[in-house]
Amino acid sequence: MNKATYTEDVPPDRFELLERIMNLERPAKVMLIGPTDSGKTTLLTFLANRLLKEGLRVAVVDSDVGQKGILPPATVSLAFPEGPFESIGELRAYAHYFIGTITPGSYTGEMAVGVKRLADMAIEKADVVLIDTTGFVTGQGIEMKRLKAELVGPELIVFLERNGELTHLQRLLSPYGEALTLSISEKVREHSRGERREVRKEKWRTYFSNTSLVEVNLSGILPTGTELFKGRPLTQEERELLSALFRWLVIAGWKGERYVVVKAEEEGGIRGHTRSVINAVDFDRLSNLLVGFIDRNGLCLGVGILKWINFGEMKAQVLTPLPAQEVGNAVELRFGRIRVLETGEELGLLRREEL
Transmembrane segments in this chain: where (predicted)? Predict the structure, then answer.
């Protein structure tokens, strides 16, 4: 299921943009920016296919983590299309950078670094690098776009807008690349939040359609992206004290800059505690958490669903489509912030500071 498919039934200015891109000095990076449902991916698909027809080598960086074409969601991905394609969902990823969530407002730095790293890889092999971005163009999204543009330095930044709503963003990004503004096509259809969730559900389900449960030794593969496992283990006296104070079943815990506790609530438990002193993580919030297998270059080999952690033995059970050999190439198991089932059903998001 894809919202954007290849069509040449596009406004005339898309052909003018194509001509402009073909006249850029190569290799060239082109970043597409616009709000949700503005036609960014449709435009990218059109441009990529036409550039391929002209014999150019094309790279696609898909950083729309919530509405990914190139699987899986919650990552930034790079692909090199070898021939015509109907949608970017057909493209096979060459590399991923793990973000771990579909709402990247708290991951501005990771989003910018991911796009930068994959764009650098792309420019080594392609004549034109097309960079798709999220529809997040307000609030934190403005800073995210600025960081991406500053790091990547695109030769051309294409803004898709309806009524001048991106004027401020265009002015902000003007030092980092030549700007071009296009009107959003009248053929673009807005999708409801429910429709976007259904599209994502199908993407998750497709990615996890052929999985197996692997055991990950957390003493050998470093757990990252979380406060868990950092610091010294709690003493028995500390565990008993926390249990008595808050009526928690303390499953695991560590003392670093503050206490970090994995716990289950006992009946009548006290929920109030000072977060600057104690970070208390509910054990059930770790179930079905998205995790990324990270290689020694900091890139994501693939993602999995955390099913169980045995804290005593430092072993994790993870459901993933990655073959055992690739899992063995991971040096980190990075914790994400979305819980999802292999059926594609999303169980909810965690705040960044929650883990």
Answer: none
**CB-based contacts of 157: which residues, under 8 Å, 6+ apart?**
30, 31, 33, 149, 170, 173, 176, 177, 178, 179, 180
Indicate if 41 and 167 belong to the same structural domain.
yes
- Quote the domain boundaries for residue 315: 210-355
Over its length of 355 residues, how does the chain's per-residue pLDDT go in tens digits?
Answer: 555 675 777 778 889 999 999 999 999 999 999 988 888 999 999 999 999 999 999 999 999 998 899 999 999 999 999 999 999 999 999 999 999 999 988 999 999 999 999 999 999 999 999 999 998 888 899 999 999 999 999 999 999 998 888 999 999 999 999 999 998 877 777 778 888 899 999 999 999 999 999 999 999 999 999 999 999 999 999 999 999 888 899 999 999 989 999 999 766 555 567 777 899 999 999 999 999 999 999 999 999 999 999 999 999 999 999 998 999 999 999 999 999 999 999 999 999 999 9
Number of domains in the chain: 2
288 φψ region: left (φ > 0), alpha (ψ -120 to 50), beta (else): left
Indicate whether 303 and 220 sit together in one domain. yes
Tell me which amino acid residue 35 is.
P
